[in-house]
Amino acid sequence: MTRTKRRTGRRHPFVFFGLLLLGLILTGGAYAAVSDDARARASVDANSQHTIDEGKKLFQANCATCHGLQAQGSGTAPSLIGVGAASVDFQVGTGRMPMAANGPQAPEKPPQFTDEQIAELAAYVASLAPGPVIPDASLTSGGGDAAKGAELFRINCAMCHNVAGAGGALTEGKYAPSLESTSGTHIYEAMVTGPQNMPVFNDLTISPESKRDIITYLKYTQENSSPGGYALASLGPVAEGLFIWIFGLGVIIAVTVWITAKSN
């Protein structure tokens, strides 16, 4: 009689240690990659001639076709003289530039350049003329007054971006993008540069401290889910009311019809 080995379902004792080691390797690798990018960007001296020259090479190879060899602009793209490092960091850092195709608005997509290359491009454009600079981390990492920021956001931003920062449609195929995953640095840069259809909120309109408060509020909304359950994409009371009218009343009518049919 042939004996068959019974499977007990127990794993080899070294499997656990192997999985633990694999997890540590993957975590360490991801951390190292992020740290390398951060160190590479921090090591870039925006004021050095070498950085500016490298940025100029990148610009002429990737941006000059539309913006001109001297960033003077053309019939298809605006001049970049005076837009500052903040505008480049926002547009290139969010992947909006270079554009994949002409359209009503440049959509956000994965960046096409490394952090070091973005810093070099920003340094070159900043060298052409004075403009908004990349904000300090003390203004973009939170730590402000979230309640005051919520009030400022409702007054200045919610009519386009929605009170929860979920975004919204504009005219002619344009839209205010969602802010649910946007970094504090890019939010600040958008306020001082006015990309796409967004107005410019300079320091006289909204002070740097108030901008920090707005970022603090948005970070709070990013990190805390809706306490009311399913948020319906945070589109507001109109969407919620429409949901109740269509689905809520529909269920009531369906139950009424079912009760009437059963009684007959």
Automatic annotation (TrEMBL):
Q: Name one GO molecular function term.
A: quinol-cytochrome-c reductase activity
Q: Which UniProt keywords apply?
A: Cell membrane, Electron transport, Heme, Iron, Lyase, Membrane, Metal-binding, Repeat, Respiratory chain, Signal, Translocase, Transmembrane, Transmembrane helix, Transport
A Pfam family in this protein? Cytochrom_C
Q: Which reaction does it catalyse?
A: a quinol + 2 Fe(III)-[cytochrome c](out) = a quinone + 2 Fe(II)-[cytochrome c](out) + 2 H(+)(out)
Which E.C. number(s) belong to this protein? 7.1.1.8
Residue limits of the Cytochrome c domain? 50-129, 144-222
Q: Which residues form the signal peptide?
A: 1-32
Question: Where is this gene product found?
Answer: Cell membrane
Q: Does the keyword Transmembrane feature in the UniProt annotation?
A: yes
Q: How does it sit in the membrane?
A: Multi-pass membrane protein
Assign the protein's first listed, main location to one coarse class.
membrane
- According to UniProt, the name of this protein is Cytochrome bc1 complex cytochrome c subunit
**Biological source species:** Candidatus Lumbricidiphila eiseniae
